[in-house]
Amino acid sequence: MIALSLTEIAGLVGGQPHDIPDPDLKVTGPVVIDSREVRPGSLFAALPGERVDGHDFARRAIEAGATAVLAARPVGTADAPVPAIVVPDVIAAMGALARAVVERLDATVVALTGSAGKTSTKDLIAQLLQRRGPTVWTPGNFNNEIGLPVAALSADEATLHLVLEMGARGKGHIQYLATLTPPRIGLVLNVGTAHIGEFGGREQIAEAKGELVEALPPPRRAGWRCSMPTTPWCAPWRRAPRPVPSCSARPRTPMCVPGMSGSPTAAAPPSRFTPLPGAAK
């Protein structure tokens, strides 16, 4: 993470410092939500869970080297103070901090969403971008209102590319995530039926995934995958003022790419992939 003093962080998240001996102390490590992952200079975000409450592990985090705790209530005592920044909502504060840090980066934010394949595609994109410079990407499937800020806050001044998954359990979720880490490039992998019960239908899933495209600044640099040109839930993206490029694994579609062979060429960037026979060029 970009090094920030506790005073700066408190101002960015609208928090109140508690038991902080030196407000100029800096957070130089990552923001973590698991006290076992704390390392010197970390900021520990104390989140309530279904079985445990992160506030109960605040002291352990400080003992492990965390600079302070981001908490919803004071976590120390008069005899054993624990430096903390107290906020009304820890998750919202993490999002606000992520937005502030990303705004200070000179990095290209690449965001992707879809009903399936996000994690593997994200990892592939990140591996390619690493050849061009320092790249940070979502660990595992940290793609919600908690995981995305954690991923974004691992970036620092040297980061050139930030590759982030954006997941959704309903309409408005991706729109919110995009306000935290405004993407410059977006990719919608597919519109499937995962979590269809939470959305209400496939068209609603498409609308939710389309929030990523709508969040992109002009000119919209996005790509999406639809199986056929007449797929109804893809229609809104086709009617956009600036058409969004699409591809498909099915033949006789505008851009048919049934597969790729081999791996990137060994030559220096830009890397190239070779489509399998029959694929569109």
From TrEMBL:
TM stretches of this protein:
none
A Pfam family that the UniProt record links to this protein: Mur_ligase
Q: Does the keyword Cell membrane apply?
A: no
Give any GO molecular function from the UniProt entry.
acid-amino acid ligase activity
The protein's matches in PANTHER family, at most eight in alphabetical order, are given as: UDP-N-ACETYLMURAMOYL-TRIPEPTIDE--D-ALANYL-D-ALANINE LIGASE
UniProt entry keywords in alphabetical sequence: ATP-binding, Cell cycle, Cell division, Ligase, Nucleotide-binding
Sequence ranges assigned to domain Mur ligase central in this UniProt record: 113-219
The segments labelled Disordered in the record are 258-281
Its lineage opens with: Bacteria, Bacillati, Actinomycetota, Actinomycetes, Kitasatosporales
Q: What protein am I looking at?
A: Mur ligase central domain-containing protein
Signal in keyword set = no
Stored InterPro entries: Mur-like_cat_sf, Mur_ligase_cen, Mur_ligase_N, MurCDEF_CellWall_CoF430Synth, MurE/MurF_N
Per its UniProt entry, which superkingdom is the organism in? Bacteria
A Gene Ontology biological process noted in the UniProt record is: cell division
Organism of provenance: Streptomyces antimycoticus
**Residue span(s) of domain Mur ligase N-terminal catalytic:** 31-100
